[in-house]
Amino acid sequence: DNLAEISHQFKTPLTAITLTAELLGRHNAGTEDARLAGRIVGQTERLADLTAALLALSRADAGVLDLSIREVPLRELIECSVEAMTPLLEKKEQGLHISEETGEGGPILLRCDLGWTKEALSNLIRNASEHAPEKTGLYIRAWDNPLFTAIVVEDEGTGFSAKDLPHLLERFYRGEGNKAEGAGIGLSLAKALIEAQNGQIRAENRKEGGARFVVKFYKNSFK
After folding, report:
1. Checking CA distances to 120, which of 70, 146, 171, 183 falls within 20 to 30 Å?
2. Which helix (H) or strand (E) holds 128?
3. 104 versus 30: which is more confidently predicted?
4. How many CA atoms are closer than 13 Å to the CA of 56, on its beta-carbon side?
5. Which residues pair with residue 150 across a beta bridge?
6. Measured CA angle at 200 (ends 196, 206), to 5 deg
7. d(Cα 131, Cα 112) in Å, to the nearest integer?
């Protein structure tokens, strides 16, 4: 409850800072002041995202995360998750490859909360992109069986170190040599959102080189 109230109070000053910086940028278009105003907007948006992530984590910890469960086409879920990460992928010129094993039953349907599950997968895709070199490939594979629906996110980077691997999904953990911006909360948030929907996630290294996140959503969890 306290985190919810504090998060709500954060919104007003953050919105005011963002709007003020945007006005400064427009009034000083093409100048150094406009560039600095743009940086203020970017950092304020990061604060807003972090506030929302902390609130989601606290709700998951308390077991009161609001879930709107419905059948979602798995392909739609993956494409929505990728959409938010498209600018990052394009900036690093990384190719994205999506494969879905549909079987005789047609497209895979997953019973989940679309918004929260998209948030979780987007965090996994962001992590893969940030830690993989430019002009490499990212792979998302999905399949279905009577027990669970699986989604795998892979990259062609250097993979996880033996020291980092057991701690990657811990809150606020940042691995050695991690140069990516962030508070170390994205993967732990993804874990909390997936587990809130009777799912599991694990991190491992690919035999071919690179990192892999394996997500499984078990069936007969939501009626």
Report:
1. 146
2. helix 114-130
3. 30
4. 25
5. 143, 216
6. 145
7. 28
